[in-house]
Every structure is written in structure tokens, then in C-alpha cells.
Amino acid sequence: YKYKKRRMSKSRLSIASNGSIPIVIPGQCETEADAVEESKLSEEEKALMREEFEAELLEAGLQIERDKERSNGIGFIRLHIPWPILSREAELQKIKVAVKKVRRLIVICASSSLILCINSLLARGVYVSAFPLHDVSRTKLLHEEWANYGVMHKYQPVDLIRKYFGEQIGLYFAWLGVYTQLLIPPSVLGFIVFLYGIFTVDTNVPSQETCNDNLNITMCPLCDGVCDYWRLSSVCSLARTSYLFDNGATVLFAIFMSLWAACFLEHWKRRQMCLKHTWDLTSLEDEEEELRPEYEETLQEKKDKLKAKSKKKVSYRSLFSDTTFIFVTFSAVFGVAVYRICMLSVWSMNPDPEAKASVRMTVTTTGIILNMLVVLVLEEVYGAIAVWLTELELPKTKEEFEERLIFKSFFLKSMNAFAPIFYVAFFKGRFAGRPGDYVYVFGDYRMEECAPPGCLIELCIQLSMIMLGKQLIQNNVFEVLIPYVFFIHKLKKIAAEDEENEIEERRPKQQFDKDFTLEPFEGVTPEYMEMIIQYGFVSLFVASFPLAPAFALLNNVIEIRLDAAKFVTEIRRPDAVRCKDIGIWYNILCGISKFSVITNAFVISFTSEFVPRMVYQYMYSVNGTMNGYTEHSLSYFNVSNFPPGTAPNTTLISGVSMCRYKDYRDPPWAPDAYTFSKQYWSVLAAKLAFVIFFQV
Questions:
Q1: What is the pLDDT of residue 113?
Q2: Phi, psi of 226 (to 5 degrees)
Q3: What secondary structure letter does DSSP report for 234?
């Protein structure tokens, strides 16, 4: 009940009643103008309101059991609802329960298979009452059949989860089970695509040409002044690794994943309809939502309802805040890019030839790790910011508040997680310029470029690091380690209080005492959010990392049991919430699935080398093979055209008159030197055509 001063007005029933027994809840019969904050009430007023509240509960037929009063610590008051009251309320709320006494069926189960026996009886709708000798509760049943790593290979007892936790949590675990089950086909196919790349990498002509020292291809420097010319064969391992994920089978896998996303959503719709029928949710009507206390308090402070002008002001403020945090996210991505650019120049000053040879891989690896850490930190920050922005908008009802909070949290967290991947996939190397005419940041640092094998391998590493980092670090540190440390600290604090009360009262710990030490339930939104972001990793950029579904499957198999153990043993039992579906999360899934078709089409067209290879093989190759593709994809640059101060200060490769760079431009001896060649426009047209074909 709420702490509010009462005035004479018509009371409103908050518990369903047939009219014979009015159940009045004090504090809900006031007008909005009478609401006051709890801190403004004296202790005497609070005690009086509590006595009135408990008296009306007794009048409604409930029974109250009190603990012996303590000088300090936590005290409990237990409410018991007799069977007639429960039957009446269940009938009014249309909940299916037994309405008359039935003869009990006594079934004897072997002790070795007691859990399985009781689970089977419950599944058949048989009422099971445990003997005192075998105190088997649903909690123990859930622990044995669900929150146990030894039953990973079994289906979840969804019906039992729903009976204990309610429909909202039951639907979440049902959805998670369907999602995990349907990850098996793409996991197997993605592994086959990876194996295909391993078995055919030795026959891949572009990789062989890149690794061929006899071609003697000299590449242009990676930075101005301190960077030297380098041999194309030095990136041999990078080219071979890139082919493992960038081959012909990857395109077929991306098409399959687009169809898989549609099948997954359709399969879940059917599964959800079956659960609605089984759980008797088809006739569930949306209840009228009450106003949030925060909304009422704001109305009291302003002495008036919100006007349209103030709502528009709040909307503008929220839009401005969203724009600001988008800028912050992309600034973080740009900051990491600047870090890579600066470190490339600094580490290239090392006189050690071996260190210079590995400078690109070192910069890329450290940049990816830094990106992952930034993503993890900003995700925690954005969670609190989403709550703050939603409270600024002041939604009227709890349902409206939850939907807005979910949307803002998803928007900020997905933007934070996917921004580094989008940068590598669609922006890195696109605006770097060419030798002699590079684009600079802060006046002195060149924009970074992709390696000759393309940016796909870096996109693959970036995606895998962020995806695995979020799953391993978030799941193990934020969800397990940190809550465990706080739980141990809380237990020590409660133990100290119990020692003080030991003199006053000596009695064994009751179950409600133990349950009170558990962490409060914070809703299923964090659980959904984690899985939806993972679904984005699996579907949006799967063309660059075919093993993403396999890693997601492995994570989810463990995640289900980890969440089960958390719900059963680590958090307080939440209030059961009846709902017909997963709500706004389904709309978010549909949006991600549709957007994934577009992103995978652009990844294959503009990030991978698939389209340029096909254009060369069928338009420019002399014999219809890939022989000569590497030479065809590199342009020439006359080193005498370097602007002053940009050519290498010292070089270990003497006699260089021409260097090569990755682009389709006319050579320096052509009339229009360094302009885009005909091959460039042919490849661009083929890329755009492939995007349209992929959408169809």
C-alpha cells in the first residue's frame, strides 16, 4: 500500500470482489492532488495507516501471522489466504483451479526416479502432494530438471517454469529454447563453410599469387616519412586466413541465413500460439494500467496535468540526448581509429625489421581489444542513461514506461555494440585517398587503409572479439562474479545482525529468512537484451564470420542453465506476470531480421572480394580463371610524384620507381593519370547489381 493522506472520496477496489465483501485498500482512494511523498509523513501516521490496512485485510478474510518483535533487524509478517477466498478470486479472475474436492490418487514412486515420476504426473495435470518423508517442492524439481548442467541435453520443463514463475518468465525461456534449438542448423552449416575454406585454401589462386615472392610486388608505404616500402608477400598469412571466411560458400551461407531468420520468426509465432492455447492465454484481456507513482508525484508538484507544450519540450530534450549519445559512440569509434593511425606511425619508427613487418597486425589487434573494452564500458553507462531518458519523458503507465525503456536501451546498446563493426565494414579505407593525394586527420595523420586482401578479415576478428568478449566477460564477470561478491558481503552483514538478535530469540532459520537474503528480481529485460544483441551479431554480419552461430549456440546452452540457476537459487521469486506474448521484443527481432538482409548484401558486395573476383574471372581474365587477379587489382604509382616530406626517409628496398596500392585507377603514364579506371566502374556496377539481386 502507498503512504498517502486520506480524504473523503469514493473508494476504488483493487482486489476483485463479488460485492459481498468490500476490499478497500487505503491510499488508493485519494485524488491526485492529495498525494504526498512518504518522507512527509510522520511515523505515527504511517503506523496508523498500516493498522487500518491490516484491519481491512482481516475483514476481507485473510489471516495474518506475526514474528516476535525484535529490537533490530528484519521482521516478517506472513499473510495466509484461505481456500474459499482463493476460489472466489480465481473464479472472478477466470483462473482455472479445482472448484470441488476430488478423490486423491495415491501413486507410489521409486525413490531413485522420484523427480521424474512427479514431473510426469504434473505434465498430465495430476495434483501431486508430497509426503512429509519426501519433501519434494517445485523448487527442488526445477533445480534437478532445469538448473543443472547435467541436463543440458534435455528440453526445458517450460510448463513447470510457467507454473512457478508465471507466464512472462515462462515465455522468455520458451523463446530462448526455440532460438537455441534453431541455431543448430546454421552452426553446422557455418562450420562446413569454414572447413571448405581450410580444404581449398591451397588451391586459391589469389592467395597463391599474394604469397609468391617471385612476383616481386612492392607496395606503397603505410604512412608518411617513417614508413618504408614493403613486399606484398609479407601479408601471405593474412591473405590465406581471409580466404577461410571469404570464399564462394560464404555467399550461399549468407543467403541461407536470410531465409533462416524468416523461418525462425515464423516458427516462434507458431510455438507462441501453442503455448497461448496450452496456458489458457487466448482469452486474456489487457487490463487497464494504473498511473505510475512517479507520474502522480510530478502532477502534484506542478499542480496540473502535463500540457502538450511540455510534452513536446520533453520529446525535444530526449531527441537531443539521443543525438548526443550517438555522437559520443561514434566519437569513441573515431578515437580508436585515431589511436591505430598514430600507433602505426610511432611503431614504424622501430629500426628492427621484424618489428616493422608485424606493425600492421600489432596495431590491428590492440585496436580491436581497445574497441571491445570501450563497448563493454559504454554498455553499462548507456543502461543507466536509458533509464534517465525514459524518466524524463514521464510515461503515464508502467507498461508504457517499460516499452520506452526497452526501445531506448536497445537503441543505445545496439548502436554501441555494432558501431565499431559498421566502421570496419563500410567506412574503413573508403575515404583514405591514394598515394600522393591522401586524406589526413589533424593535419598530419593519414586515414587508415584496408590490407590488400581486404577489410573482411579485420571485420571477422572485430566481430568475433566483441561477440565473445561480451558473452564471456558479461556473463562471467557482470552476471556471476560481481553478484556473488555482493551476495557474500550481504550474508556476512545479515550474520552479524543475527548474532545481535541471538540473545533475544533462538530459532532455526525459516525459508523466508533465507529468501530475503537473495537479490531482488530486476525483470527479464536484461536477459532479453543480451540475447537480442547476440541475435544481431549472428544475423547482421554473418557473411563475415560464419562461425558466429556456432559460438552463439555454445553460449546459449550454458546461458540457459546459468539463468536457470540464477532464477532458482540466487534471486527472490518474482511476482507472476500474465502476458500473451513477448511484447515489443518480437518487433525488434523482425526489424533486425529485415535489416540483416541489407547488411549482408553490402558486406559481400563492398567488404569482401567476392564480386571483384567474379568480375575479373568473367570479364577480364584471358582464360576464364583467376590467374592474374592480384596484378589486376593493384594500381601503379610513380614514387617521384610523392609530395615533399611524404616519401620514405630511409628504405631497405633500393631501386623502387613504381609502387603498388589497392585500387582501380589509371597508371601514371595514362592521359588521365590516377583517375578511376573503367574496371572501377564495372566493379561498382556489379556490386550494386549484387545488392539488388540479394534483396530479391
A1: 47
A2: -80, -20
A3: G
Cα 76 from Cα 90, distance rounded (Å): 26
Number of helical H runs and strand E runs in the chain: 24, 10
Asked if residue 531 has pLDDT above 80, the reply is yes
Instruction: Identify the band that residue 353 occupies on the pLDDT scale cut at 50, 70 and 90.
Output: low
With vertex at residue 294, the alpha carbon angle to CA 289 and CA 299, rounded to the nearest 5 degrees, is 95
Q: Measured between alpha carbons, how far is 222 from 476 in angstroms, rounded to an integer?
A: 39
How far is Cα 485 from Cα 475, in angstroms, rounded to an integer? Answer: 15
For residue 665, the model assigns a pLDDT of: 92
> Cell numbers of 41, please?
509523513
Phi, psi of 131 (to 5 degrees): -70, 150
pLDDT for the residue 263:
92
Q: For residue 154, which of 129, 126, 119 has the smallest C-alpha distance?
A: 119
What local confidence, expressed as pLDDT, does residue 449 receive? 83
Q: What are phi and psi of 78, to 5 degrees?
A: -105, 130
Torsion of CA 618, 619, 622, 624, to 10 degrees: 0
Classify residue 506 as exposed, middle or buried by CB count within 10 Å of its CB (0-12, 13-18, 19+). exposed
* Among 36, 83, 94, 60, CA closest to 578: 94
The DSSP string of 282-328 is: TTPPPPPPPBPHHHHHHHHHHTSPPPHHHHHHHHHHHHHHHHHHHHH
Looking up cell 564462394 gives 248
CA distance 355 to 369: 20
Q: What whole-number distance in Å separates Cα of residue 17 and Cα of residue 25?
A: 13
Beta strands in 369-500 (DSSP E): 433-434, 437-438, 440-441, 445-446
pLDDT tens-digit series, residues 16-35: 333 344 444 444 334 333 44
pTM: 0.79
Residue keyed to cell 609502387? 659
Burial pattern 633-669, b for ≥16 Cβ within 10 A else e, equals bbbbbbbeebeeeebbeeeeeeeeeebbbbbbbbebe
The amino acid present at 228, given as its one-letter code, is D
Q: How far apart are alpha carbons 81 and 90 in whole angstroms?
A: 12
Cell numbers that stand for 277 in this block: 492455447
- 660, HSE (Cβ side, Cα atoms, 13 Å): 20
| Contact by Cβ (8 Å): 23, 13 | yes
Bridge partners (DSSP) of residue 634 are 662
